[in-house]
Amino acid sequence: VSKIFQVALGILAAIGGFVDIGDIVFNVAAGATFGYQLIWVVAIGVVGIIVYSEMCGRVAAVGKRAVFDAIRERMGFGVGLGALIASEIVNFMTLAAEVGGIAIALQLLSGLPYRALILLAAVVLAVVVWVAPFEWIERIFGYGGLCLLVFAVGALKLHPNWGGFGHGWVPHVPDSGNLLVYGYFVVGLLGAAMTPYEVYFYSSGGIEERWQPADLGLNRANSIIGYGLGGFLSIALMIVSAELFLPEGVDPSTLGTVALGAEIPLGQAGLFLALLGILFAVGGAAIDTCLAGAYNLAQFFGWEWGKYRRPAQAPRFTISWAVLLVLAMAVIMSGIDAVMLTEFAVIFSVVALPLTYIPILLVANDKIYMGRYANGRLANTLGLVYLVVILFVSLTAIPFMILSHMGQG
Amino acid sequence: MSRLGPLLALVLILAACGGGTLNAESFRKEAESVQSFAAEGALLARDIADGKSLSPYVRVHAGELAKDAETLARRLERAKGVPALRAKLPRASRLAARVAVALKKLEAEPGDRTGARRLQGELEDVAHSAEELASA
Questions:
Q1: Do residues B25 and B107 make contact, with C-beta atoms less than 8 angstroms apart?
Q2: Cβ separation of B65 and A109 shorter than 8 Å?
């Protein structure tokens, strides 16, 4: 059991990153628009995030540095500040959307008023972050989010077209449909898979858990199992949508529609587990982004930080996450659409991608800093290949968003 | 700021006009939206009729879809189309309004399995008509 609990960090980081409110709807929309044709993009994204999270976990274990420490050190104050501002904006937009997502999931479960549930969501999140130890946050939200596996069961029950599924793993241009919309989904799915807050949270989590060089195997297991599971859930959502919504011409744009994808093949139990899974996954993403926002600020400015410290021992870190949470609640209370907000956040986050991943590669490759734990040839080759992918995604995300009218064609 | 003034005025005028003139492509997208709401409503109604759904979920989700379908119906009612679309626009608006009414019934009676079966048929008909309208 203790071995299973040890990979909770990777699972929470991946569930929060891969299946947050925007990604859940985005994956389902991708399946409803292009069937299985975008599976290859998820696969490429999963490998990319495994490569980079393994690197930043290794830097945390060996160098005792989290990502924003490395950014500040390697990129200098000016560029680092730019990265900090970009990442804080994206973190904040995502956090606000996730708070809204928790309220939507609770509303679908209970039927209670949305605004009251926003308040409840913010209060519960604040209490959990304040009171619960880091390990328990990982376990509750990471393993709770695994209720989303109900979509994998649903996908199997729908008897997917295995030929089309197999073809979907091969990168290709679509047989039919709007190329700009396809490009928008490619860039969005890659951006979502490699969202910067995943590595901010993951590397800081490694330090929270006091990883040592002896834990490098655990780091590898966390990144492979955690992000592998995140990708698996993304693909399951895509399959369900390809089988149910594409043939009927349904354009999914809400969490309620996503849940219908589990209800149709599995009935009430499927619906209940799907809503519970969404609740934990979105809650996990809220905690990822809330803490990542505070981690980044504290690491950049050199404040005391960490959940392993009592709030009074890291006051600026504690105030940072509390303020972020209150502001996020206020933004979502104003009536902004949570799904739309997070889709914007995914697309805009790609601008922060190079500023996040280049310093990780530089530090992980630094033999003076990392000694015998520096990148080997495979890690460097994959790191460089993914830097090219990241640069492509950063340069094309906003043009694709504008030209495809946010995927509407 | 002075350069933004005329642009802002233009945006406000366009917004006040209720969305401007629809061309064939934008009409197709609107008709596909009607189809999407109707088809999703039919799937939901089928699950209610089969006893596979949960009441709070139905109330909230059907209510949300009904609100969106109603907004779409109003937008189509106000929209002006190119001459070839003038006969199709009121039809699309009526279809969207029918979807909204059906979904409101689901929202009001989430446990009525017999009623849901009847509404499933109606929503499937609307989805079919909207699909024809989008592809015509």
A1: no
A2: no
Q: What are phi and psi of B22, to 5 degrees?
A: -90, 140
pLDDT digits (tens, 9 = 90+) for A86-136: 889 989 999 999 999 999 999 999 999 999 999 999 999 999 999 999 888
- Please name the member of A111, A267, A271 whose beta carbon is closest to the beta carbon of B60: A111
Asked if A221 contacts A10 with a C-beta cutoff of 8 angstroms, the reply is yes
Residues with Cβ < 8 Å from A302, sequence gap 6 or more?
Answer: none
A27-66 confidence digits (pLDDT tens): 999 999 999 999 999 999 999 999 999 999 999 999 888 8
Identify from B32, B35, B61 which residue to disrupt to test chain A contact, counting A C-beta atoms within 10 A and taking the largest count: B61
User: Residue type for A100, please?
Assistant: G
Encoded amino acid at A206, one letter: G
Distances (CA, A) of A8 to A11, A95, A271: 5, 21, 25
C-alpha to C-alpha distance for B30 and B39, rounded to whole angstroms: 14
Question: Looking at this predicted complex, what is its ipTM?
Answer: 0.89
Cα-to-chain-centroid distance, residue B91: 12
Q: Is A380 on the interface with B (CB under 8 A)?
A: no
B48-72: b or e for each residue (b if 16 or more CB lie within 10 Å)? bbeebbbebbbbbbbbbbbebbbeb
